[in-house]
Each structure stands twice: as C-alpha cells, then as structure tokens.
C-alpha cells in the first residue's frame, strides 16, 4: 500500500507543471488570464479581412482604374489595416486590469466609426469613383465625405486607450511595453494622416473616374505630386513625397511589437536569460525606439517631396542611425542579461 501511495505521489508530481513551465507558458500567451476579446472589434477585424481578400481577388477581374491603380486597391489597403489593427485592439482591451468598462466603450466607438469609414471607401470603389479629396456634388460623395467627418474619432479613441494603459500594468513588463509603445506609434501613424492635409499639395484639379466622368478634386496625399502613385499594392508615390508611408508604418507599429514579443517568448523556452520579463521589455523598448526613428525619417523624407523609393544620402543616414541605435541598445541588453545568468 505504501509503495502504491509513493507511485501515485510520483505520478502526480510528473503531471504537475513546474512554476517555471507555467511562467513560460504565460509568456507565450503574452498575458495572463483568459477574458474574451472585445467582440465589436473582432467583428470589425473579420469584416476588414473579408474586404481585403475580396478586393485582392477582384483586382485581376475588374479592369477599372483610378489614376492608374485598380479601383479595388484602396479597399484592399483599408480592409487589411482594419483587420490587423482592430484585432490588436481587441486583444489589448481583453487584458486591461482597470477601467475595463471605459475601455470597452471606447473600443466600441472605434469599431462603429471604423466600420462606417471603410464601408464608404468600398462603396466609392464599387461605384468607380474617388473617396478621398472628392468634391463632387453627388449623393454618394456627400455621404462619403460626411462619414469622413467622424474619422478623427479613430485617432481620439486610440489616444484615449493609450492614456488608460499608462495607469495600469497589463500582463508582464514586456507586454506592458508592447501596449504602451504600440499605442504611441499607432497614434502617431494616425496623426500622420491628418498631417497630410497641412503639407501635401492642395491644388484644385479635375481627374477622370473609372467611367471617364470628370471629378473635381481638392487636396491630395502627395508632396510635389498630389496624385503620385506607382508602388505595387501600396500605391505609394514614386514621383514625390508620400505621407501614407509614415501613416502605414506608424499605424502597424503595434503589430510589429506584438510579433517581436511572441518571438522573444518562444526563444525564452530555450534561452534562460530571456525568461526575465525585464530583459524582454528592454529589448522591446529599444526596438520601438528604432522603429520610431524609422517612422520619423519617413515623415521627414515625405515633407521634402522625396519618394520613399528614392532616398538621398541624408535619408539613408537617418534610417541607418535609427537601426544602429536599436541594435546597440538590444546588444547591450542581451550582453548584460547573459552575463547575469551565467
């Protein structure tokens, strides 16, 4: 009987995970707890993904174009952006530890405004006309421009969630760093979209839509060439500065940092020095600082009327400096962590 009891005791010990294993598993999940993701934002993300896939599939079969690009290029970009960003926010809000109801309400506002935003973009594309900078006096365009009046709420809600995260710790230090830096970068990316209106070419002009009708436009996204385009899929200008580059880089900073956090958690299973969340948090902060430098460089490049694909020496130096700062900081962090563990 005693021998059987000992065997059962050993079996129970084998089935019970060690504290280190539990901590590492929690690290792989990025946060502890299992609260449901924010449903309206999940729905927005799924809708965005569906629109992106549909638009990408429609491009080869619909030969209509606007300024040389497929009418479905913009819905594809908007759908992808909302897919990635809405799901990131849904994940974030599910793990807030304070002011959860406030965060849920703010997230719902973002989801509603975001859905309306890319719905009108899809509607304009399906009609073969311009959504942005269009001043035509048609019922469809009036509805589109009215919906765009609420777009600043996307920036304000993101900034508000960012403020909420400053007063709480979500998950471990690494996850908290991801969320705070990610929201800061995303807010800057959204701000870049509004900055376009103050630095881009604002000339009034007339362009043909997909049906050959003359459409009056006012304003633009390009510096030096208001209607610049050319890059595959992105449509970013190859003939002048384009702040949509900065908008994209900043907006998706959170997803980049989430990916880095996942990678570090996976590496922590085999690297003991990475199991300290302070080390992972420091690496994420240095990477975010370098990412911020790249974002700032693309803004500086665009306002000088320089295409993203044609950087001059000053721009290349700025890009290199941003990367080197991040690499130097991460290298020093890794060296200290390995020395401490050894």
From TrEMBL:
Q: Where are the transmembrane segments?
A: 41-61, 76-94, 106-126, 146-167, 179-200, 249-269, 281-303, 315-334
Return the protein name: Uncharacterized protein
Q: Which organism is it from?
A: Glycomyces algeriensis
Task: Provide the alphabetized UniProt keywords.
Answer: Membrane, Transmembrane, Transmembrane helix
What's the domain of life for this entry? Answer: Bacteria
């Amino acid at each position: 009987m005693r021998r059987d009891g000992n065997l059962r005791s050993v079996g129970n010990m084998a089935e019970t995970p060690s504290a280190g294993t539990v901590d590492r598993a929690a690290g792989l999940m990025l946060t502890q707890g299992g609260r449901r993701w924010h449903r309206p934002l999940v729905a927005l993300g799924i809708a965005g993904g569906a629109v992106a896939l549909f638009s990408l599939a429609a491009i080869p079969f619909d030969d209509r174009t606007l300024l040389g690009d497929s009418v479905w290029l913009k819905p594809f970009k908007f759908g992808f952006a909302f897919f990635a960003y809405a799901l990131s926010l849904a994940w974030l809000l599910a793990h807030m530890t304070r002011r959860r109801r406030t965060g849920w309400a703010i997230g719902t506002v973002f989801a509603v405004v975001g859905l309306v935003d890319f719905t009108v973009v899809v509607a304009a594309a399906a009609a073969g006309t311009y959504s942005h900078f269009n001043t035509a006096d048609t019922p469809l365009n009036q509805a589109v421009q009215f919906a765009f009046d609420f777009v600043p709420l996307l920036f304000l809600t993101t900034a508000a969630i960012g403020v909420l995260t400053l007063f709480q710790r979500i998950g471990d230090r690494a996850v908290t760093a991801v969320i705070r830096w990610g929201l800061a970068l995303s807010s800057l990316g959204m701000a870049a979209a509004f900055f376009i209106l103050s630095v881009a070419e604002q000339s009034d002009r007339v362009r043909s839509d997909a049906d050959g009708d003359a459409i009056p436009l006012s304003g633009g996204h390009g510096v030096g060439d208001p209607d610049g385009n050319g890059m595959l899929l992105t449509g970013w200008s190859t003939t002048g500065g384009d702040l949509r580059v900065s908008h994209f880089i900043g907006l998706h900073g959170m997803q980049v940092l989430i990916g880095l956090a996942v990678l570090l958690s996976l590496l922590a299973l085999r690297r003991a020095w990475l199991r300290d969340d302070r080390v992972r948090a420091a690496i994420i902060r240095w990477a975010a600082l370098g990412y911020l430098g790249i974002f700032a460089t693309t803004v500086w490049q665009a306002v000088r009327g320089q295409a993203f694909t044609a950087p001059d020496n000053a721009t290349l130096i700025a890009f290199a400096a941003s990367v080197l700062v991040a690499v130097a900081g991460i290298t020093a962090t890794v060296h200290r962590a390995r020395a401490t563990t050894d």
